Amino acid sequence: MSQDQINLFANVETESATDSAAHNEKQIEINTLTDQLNYHAHRYYVLDDPIISDAEYDRQYRKLEALEAEYPEFKRADTPTQRVGGPPLEGFEKVRHNVPMLSLANAMDEDEMREFGFRIKRHLKVPSTTIITYVIEPKIDGVAISLRYEDGLLTMGTTRGDGVYGEDITGNLKTIQSIPLQLNRDGHPIPSVLEVRGEAYFPRDVFHAFNAKRLAAGEPTFANPRNATAGSLKQLDPKVTAQRSLAAFLYAPALSEGVTFESHWDFLSALEGWGFQVNPLGRLCEGMEPVIQGYHELMALRPTLNYDIDGMVIKVNDYALQERLGAVSKSPRWAIAFKFPAQQETTQIETIEVQVGRTGALTPVAHLTPVNVGGVTVSRATLHNQDEIDRKDIRVGDTVVIQRAGDVIPEVVKVIRDLRPADSQPYRLPKVCPICGSETERAPGEAVTTCTGLDCPAKLKASLQHFASRKAMNIEGLGKKLVEQVIDGGMVRHILDLYRIDLEGWMTLERMGKKSATKLLANLEKSKETTMRRFLFALGIRHVGEGTARILSEALPSLQQIYDASLHDLENIRDIGPIVAASIHRFFAQEKNRETIQALLDLGIHPEPPLPKETTTTEDPNFAGKRFVLTGSMESLSRNEAKALIEERGGKVSGSVSRKTDFLVAGASAGSKLTKAQNLGITILTEEDLTTMLQ
Ligand code: IVH
């Protein structure tokens, strides 16, 4: 569609609509919405320059979806709604490439680059002083793909395979938003058949978020974005691929029937005009010296890019020259890859140190024999958690392959088993916190191991902020900044110290006059008269949120009762599950925690047991302790309203679907969360089901 047709959805009734009014108004509406959504998706995913809000896009998308459901006969082949993924396949079909997918020869250093230039001139039989024009492009470290368009419409997408036969992964490639389903007709003329080659990849930020999620869910992570891309493209269910948010750069022609190009630079600009994502770092270079300079510039840019590159590709620009140069065995003579120095090296693990983070999470870090990786000395690598250590079977003394990817903390890729010392032992995270000596815990089903110490210095800032917060001890005026100041200044080394600072002590702090200090002391004093529920919540026991603190205080109104409760007693409290019960039990079983609690009571903190009326709650057995996930849009309620109503009844609302989810409430246009919930066998509620339950 052309620029002047873009009306930001203000009015879908375009001129062509009136022309075709005789046909079908709905068809025109579907056509217009399809064009406009494709246009805006291109602006968003390819040009990175959206001109409408996500919410507006979503509204129009849902409108198109609804229209397509009603009039499937008008659904267009390039509808954006198919990007969510079609039905799962039994397997991928093998397809023969019309033009084989070649690979590239490598140059290892600058001399080999220059030699490539000389070779070209010798082959072309031109004087050595001739200046050849090259195009340089980043070598994208993803998965090679080939796309076929017939009359401008995407008809086939394949993997490279062995270069001669690839696999038909059309359904998966259609989920990649930066791949046009239909070529833009306002750009360069459209070939009757176009086959283009490129690289699908995982944007780095998306990859890290994706791996973090997998790690948190206890699922195996991917070693790097390329492996994750390959894994995602090999999914038989395109809906899974759709959730991975891959992207693609296109960079080479294979077939272009009816339209020819003089140079690679022209071809790249046609690709851009047709709507493909073309890498913005491509440059035209006159002769070899600018190529080598470009290489150093690209290497410097490498850590800042949001995608992995493993070198630079140099191509002769002139297609007539390319033709004359031809190919040797499996690679063309007119191009070469100039690889970057390796980002992986081999070294040894000397020790494993355990760091304790702000939230109490234990992170094992390998101390390595220092090694140079791609120009940077690396002496530490993160081991993430016990699962990662077990999965890779990492041990002290092991020789390991480590990897540095851009600005990311180095990681251990694998252990070289053959070099393992005979007496090595599997590594286990410590049973006690290396900072405070309290027990560590790893709740079943969770990947992270945490310190259970109430006042572990490693997590003191976070625990203190939580302790003072409104729903906990409600110490007015004691916010994040003040907490940081008193800890950094050494005035507070322990939760108890908070109640021990006197007027003068408070007055030593920045911008704290006598008046504010007096007020703060009064607030501290006031906070001592609290409820059991607040006090239990303030202790920051893992898995004990406000709701659980209330349930616990109602079931066991005194601290003595809690101390006396066995794990079994705790598990028998309504709405306290085994994981939460175990966490509570472990917390109170620790002498150190009991001592701190006693000292707090000695300082005058007085947690009131719940009044009888507090025990009559608005809890509803249909909701209490149940986990809900809301997705799609609802008509009668906003998300926030639904959340509040569920929480009022004792339910929990979380943002993502996991095995722990009890109900998924699916509103209109529910997408990937619905699919995931269905796959996990989670009960799906409609908006109506939810409103009935709420009544
Ligand atoms: S041109 C005739 N350009 O590197 C070969 N390839 O080892 C045409 N690659 O299989 C390839 N970025 O998967 C070309 N800008 C780029 C590239 C690139 C990555 C990959 C591609 C190819 C491999 C060659």
List keywords for this structure.
Helix Hairpins, disordered N terminus, D-amino Acid Aminotransferase, Chain A, domain 1, OB fold (Dihydrolipoamide Acetyltransferase, E2P), 5 domains, 36% helix, single chain, 26 helices, 5-stranded antiparallel sheet, 695 residues, 5-stranded mixed sheet, binds 2-(butylsulfanyl)adenosine, alpha+beta
Give a description of the structure.
The protein is of the alpha+beta class and 695 residues long. It folds into 5 domains: 80 residues, Orthogonal Bundle (Helix Hairpins), CATH 1.10.287; 234 residues, DNA ligase/mRNA capping enzyme (D-amino Acid Aminotransferase, Chain A, domain 1), CATH 3.30.470.30; 76 residues, OB fold (Dihydrolipoamide Acetyltransferase, E2P); 156 residues, DNA polymerase, domain 1; 68 residues, BRCT domain (Rossmann fold), CATH 3.40.50. Helix content is 36%, strand content 20%. The chain has a 5-stranded mixed sheet with strand order 2-13-10-3-9. A 5-stranded antiparallel sheet has the order 16-15-14-17-18, with no helix packed on it. It has a 4-stranded antiparallel sheet with strand order 5-4-7-8. Strand 14 and strand 15 form a beta hairpin. 34% of the residues are buried. The N terminus is likely disordered. The site of 2-(butylsulfanyl)adenosine has 14 residues, from strand 3, strand 8 and strand 13. 2-(butylsulfanyl)adenosine binds next to strand 3, strand 8 and strand 13.
